[in-house]
Amino acid sequence: AKGSGRSTYAFYSQELTSQAQQRLELASSLRQALEQQQLRVHYQGIYDLSNGRIVSFEALVRWLHPEQGLIPPAAFIPIAEESGMISAIDHWVLEEACRQMQLWLSQGKVLRFVSVNISSRLFSHADLDQHIARILRRTGLEPRYLELEITESAVMEDPDAASVLLARLRALGVRLAIDDFGTGYSSLLRLKSMKVHKLKIDQGFISGLPDDQEDAAITRSVIGLAHNLGLCVVAEGVETAEQAAFLLQEGCDFGQGYGFARPQAASDIDWCDSTMSYG
Ligand code: C2E
Ligand code: CA
Ligand code: CA
Ligand code: CA
Fold it and tell me: What sequence ranges are listed for the domain EAL (predicted)?
């Protein structure tokens, strides 16, 4: 019995060590990935629900691993956050997306802006607006063509600091969206003080549409709330024509999801407007 207790302990500690080891290894290969240019940005179209036209793109990072292939952000963003590398990744994605947007504009593409995700780590940097201003200068992109997506939970971590930073970013001329809206328990009063342009309804509420009564009620009230505050609203995770029809009927402005298009490399983008039939 004594022996088996020891071996159980040894087993667990070995497992823990190997988990910690794996994390460390992943963190160091992620650092290499950034240096060796293994990160890629894919772009997912955002569509005007009333006519199916592409209005903008969201930039989404991927890791093109030499052996493991394309790794989704969920598999490395948490490690990047833990190891502090997320800010370097966000900066890289920002610059890459601004360069791509500038290229699209120079090719005559009609797009309102490109949206980039800002991690809560980067959002807590008081000098974020200076970083963004530098990237815009370097890439030559006008501020109004860049939209920053900040999650509701990142904004609500420190709402007072967030209001100040959002006001500075807005003064810079970039557009601001609150991502994953509906999951972070914002109070209405707080929301009013956040000077943003857009709310993105979390896909968790869209998946149950149009049948789930609670999801329908929440979606309807977020659309109403956004419009009453003078904001526009995007639904993410739109997969079916029924969902798109429901959203259009409820007055939602834009839709994004596999039903329109998956995230793709810039070179693979299909510039035809959505043929998803609804309404
Ligand atoms: P997010 O910002 O909420 O992005 C939307 C996610 O939903 C993307 O996953 C997108 O591919 C996925 N999606 C889009 N349409 C559909 C759909 O119809 N059905 C389903 N089931 N999913 C859909 P992705 O690219 O794997 O990114 C996951 C998360 O990783 C993002 O969630 C975002 O929080 C984070 N992320 C991605 N790129 C970056 C980045 O450059 N910087 C930071 N800080 N975070 C990023
Ligand atoms: Ca997003
Ligand atoms: Ca989202
Ligand atoms: Ca999300």
Answer: 23-277
pLDDT in tens, the chain (279 residues): 444 555 555 566 666 677 788 778 888 889 999 999 999 999 999 999 999 999 999 999 999 998 889 999 999 999 899 888 999 999 999 999 999 999 999 999 999 999 999 999 889 888 999 999 999 999 999 999 999 999 999 999 899 999 999 999 999 999 999 999 988 777 777 888 888 999 999 999 999 999 999 999 999 999 999 999 999 999 999 999 999 999 999 999 999 999 999 999 999 998 888 877 654
Q: Around Cβ 105, how many Cβ atoms within 10 Å?
A: 16
Tell me the two tokens of residue 17.
């060590």
Q: What is the dihedral of CA 51, 229, 154, 150, to 10 degrees?
A: 30
Cβ < 6 Å from ligand 1: which residues?
Answer: 44, 60-61, 72-74, 77, 86, 90, 93, 117, 119, 179-180, 203, 236-239, 257-258, 263
Predicted-complex ipTM score: 0.97
Which listed ligand is nearest to 94 at the C-alpha? 1
